[in-house]
Design goal:
3 copies of one chain form a homotrimer. Helices cover 24% and strands 25% of the residues of chain A. Chain A has 384 residues and is of the alpha+beta class. Chain A folds into 2 domains: 3-48 and 186-380, Naphthalene 1,2-dioxygenase Alpha Subunit, Chain A, domain 1, CATH 3.90.380.10; 51-168, Rieske Iron-sulfur Protein, CATH 2.102.10.10. In chain A, a hairpin with a 4-residue loop joins strand 15 and strand 16.
């Protein structure tokens, strides 16, 4: 669906949105505080869905790898000698030892720090001292355990399920939708990690509406009118749309564009994208915010009912980095400030929702996307 | 009952006390370490009884408020525009957000920091942006949730029960008993918070006897003989009596009176109160220590079986603050030292009681009030 | 069994070792992460077996005492006026108060810091103020609760069971085996405590093989060949043997002997011990490492499935301390470095084993003792 189409259909999705908000209320308390619900989410959602874990630019060359934490699991994501991106559980097949500490690096093989068992970047065990003395031992039986892995628009996703829905099938509704943003070639200029004292669902609900913008984000509200949202994805696991940016402005501290445009800015059919910021939530752990001059991506990692780790990257066009007009900090600082404003109110919600006085409250018409997100969540949890 | 009366009845309550101590032993281990017992206490005691939460002098003017933590709950206690003291759960009716952070302040209304829903100090919702677009939405349905609140001698008490015993009925046995101490007009000069590694019941048991004074409180023991206790309340939820203060002394670092007297000191019928300190425990979270020149009040807030938060205030006559003989630090420093001595031995008891070797031990005749307190506790818990 | 004998029987125990390793795999995940298994271990192992708690040299004179933590328990180990070593639960019989804080000291009696009840070093209650007023109270009923205690080669062991197997019976298989090491007269020059993020069983498994030495301990591997182990105790609760030390070397930073020899070094029949280091694991909490010039002893104290507290002592001949060639730091520094290398890989194993990808892995022939240790552990836990 092109942008032009959804602008035409504006009345239609306004109606769709209202369908969700009529009488819609926030989720009951247990969804935000219960360890049992959290465990169920880990099982039904975070062990079954495709999870954003990084971007292919993080491992540009054969031998590059990074370590990623997925819930209680640690994974090694590596580009092997044939340039294939692979993922493995970070666990030696001998005595279970964590193979790689630290966050990233470059290696020709993966050697266990304990007894020096050594694996190729394709996961095959290639050396295990003294094990040839053991009758019946076959190296081929002791490859690293692989994890399902796939790419969408240059982003790396993993899936911990034994037999997951193919990645292409999962992302089929978004096929081609973002291709003109060139995201597979972008590079991150900065990653900031946030340890947020709030349930992960509060982060999604917060991201999905700008009803809170006037009070919470005074600087943002000056650049993008809080009531300018036009949503084209209004139900299901992918939700969102765009908001207007005031003429000639950019979402930066200075209000000016901070880098070479990321998308096909020369394409006359995309001219109106120059004054728009697109916000999409990708169930269950990605927030995708596409600006004319950069793409911001949040990864969400629930740690407990009350705590979420968030990693935020700012991606730019690879050619932007070398140019004299490259001012990435102008965007990073702007959103770092705005992120912290959001995390603060999310933490306040977490606190209040834990009270015996909390009851589900009524969503306003400006909160149709949070309501739609809740519906999708409940569907996945088998509650509706 | 006047002081004169209970002095006459001295032999009587000595006998009463002995009734409790004959064979009385400390509580079994589970009452001090079990999370299940702790949860039961939160339910049967801290969610059903009137709890000390502050003093009316903390919110002297209309618009003044303070935030108080009661177990896992946060409450806003405010003096509204008509000067009525009110209490509310600190939870927005929209999305559950904590409304007020910080400990106290002054405001004309309560505005949610998230989406700017705004409530009057009487709790009524007075502004909710865009909600008039929602069919059937009525502001009157979304007032802040009130909490039961009452005053006794100027102290503010709350009760989380749906339908609690009226405060006046609860405190009826103490009606008029403390009125000559003028506590409703006193003001706190200082609050100190203590994080104590002991079960809350150990704090009560410690407060209720001076058998430990010679070894634990050498300075206190020089000012008030450890064996001078005369108790007039020997069973039930309110327990205690007075101890003698050595002639011409005061419970201060210097041993001298540190402020204008708090009670009707000119009243000839109260002359002997000048040489006495009155100690009363008010079930389940108040310790009331009335000295000739100041009133000390402890609030107890159990955090876990092994941990109690204690807030201690030192109250003085409002006229005392302006006088040249006002030396509040002389009293504060004295009791801060004495408090810490007590918390230390309470923490040591907590440690030892957790041992498999612990068995209930025999109370001495000097520990009749701890034994009576235990009985009342067990009665409320439905164990006797 | 003498060293000479087991050298002769070398082929025999090689075969024994192989019996264990053929097909032996590491323990399943639950043994390293489950709180239920941990609780069961505390019950079946740490509340039933003889546990190393110290050495008699720590309380050389009558009146000396030390406090030791055993799981959740605190014990007072004292040498009484008749020079008998005794152990008591650190719990007052009155109100359960912890009697002694701190780690060690010298005292003529044990007085409770709360109400001054006082006990002799033999545990008898000798003073309890005001308790003579209580009808039927008899001091003889309120002695400190004793703990079972015994000595083996100068080391102090306790047993929390009501009716434990006698210490002599437990250690019968080791009777006389270590006597020429003079361990009952040695003195510790240093104790280092380590807080290790690994299950206690991983520490035993790590101690029991040198398959990991080439990669983990480059300095150690230069002094003692990793494949030189000769084990004479290959099944049951006591496991281990010796490794060769390169001619003229010692396990120190400098590679030189650091102190007067600890064992009967003048005995010509023991000459080959000068080039050997003996490593024995004593189930369930002692690692005994006997070098020509010092004895290193580890005490293990499991704190949770994922955490173990380890106390390491370096013992020397009492005559060594005064000599000019005494360089205890040369040994201490060497093993402190080596210990930390071990704890690091143990912590990495703990992390990896917690993964859903972990499966029991195959032990190599160089890991026969870890496999034997696992068997003994499972037997004690009633799993085989």
């Amino acid at each position: 669906m092109s942008v032009a189409t959804h602008t035409t259909d504006r009345r239609l999705f306004r109606r769709t949105a209202e369908r969700f908000t009529a009488g819609a209320k926030t989720l009951p308390q247990r969804y935000f505080v219960s360890p049992e619900v959290f465990a169920e989410e880990q099982k039904k959602i975070f062990s079954k869905h495709w999870l954003l874990i990084g971007h292919q630019s993080q491992i540009a060359k054969a031998g590059d790898y990074f370590v990623a934490e997925v819930g209680d699991e640690s994974l090694i994501i590596a580009r092997d000698q044939r340039s294939t991106i692979r993922g493995f559980y970070n666990v030696c097949r001998h005595r279970g030892t964590r193979l790689k500490e630290g966050t990233c690096g470059h290696a020709s093989a993966i050697q266990c720090p304990y007894h020096a068992w050594t694996y190729g970047l394709d996961g095959r065990l290639i050396r295990a001292p003294h094990m040839d003395e053991v009758q019946g031992f076959d190296k081929a039986d002791y490859s690293l355990h692989p994890v399902n892995l796939g790419l969408f628009e240059g982003f790396i996703f993993v899936n911990l399920a034994d037999d997951p829905m193919p990645l292409e099938e999962w992302f089929a509704p978004l096929a081609g939708k973002f291709s003109h943003w060139n995201m597979s070639i972008l590079r991150s200029a900065k990653r900031i990690e946030y340890d947020v004292r709030a349930n992960w669902k509060l982060i999604f609900e917060n991201y999905s509406e700008c009803y809170h913008c006037p009070g919470v984000h005074p600087a943002l509200s000056k650049l993008t009118p809080y009531d300018s949202a036009e949503n084209d994805l209004c139900e299901g696991p992918f939700l969102g749309g765009f908001m207007s940016i005031n003429k000639g402005k950019s979402l930066t501290m200075s209000g000016n564009a901070c880098a070479l445009g990321v998308n096909g800015i020369a394409d006359p059919g995309r001219a109106h994208d120059r004054d728009r910021v697109f916000y999409y939530s990708i169930f269950p752990n990605m927030l995708l915010s596409m600006h004319p001059d950069y793409v911001m991506v949040h990864q969400l990692w629930p740690q407990s009912p009350k705590r979420t780790l968030i990693m935020c990257d700012w991606f730019f066009h690879p050619k932007a980095f070398e140019r004299p007009d490259f001012q990435s900090e102008d965007a990073i600082e702007f959103w770092d400030m705005t992120n912290k404003q959001d995390w603060h109110v999310c933490a306040l919600s977490q606190q209040g929702i834990a009270s015996r006085a909390y009851q589900p409250g009524p969503y306003s018409p400006r909160e149709s996307i949070p309501a739609a997100w809740d519906q999708e969540y409940l569907r996945v949890m088998g509650q509706v």
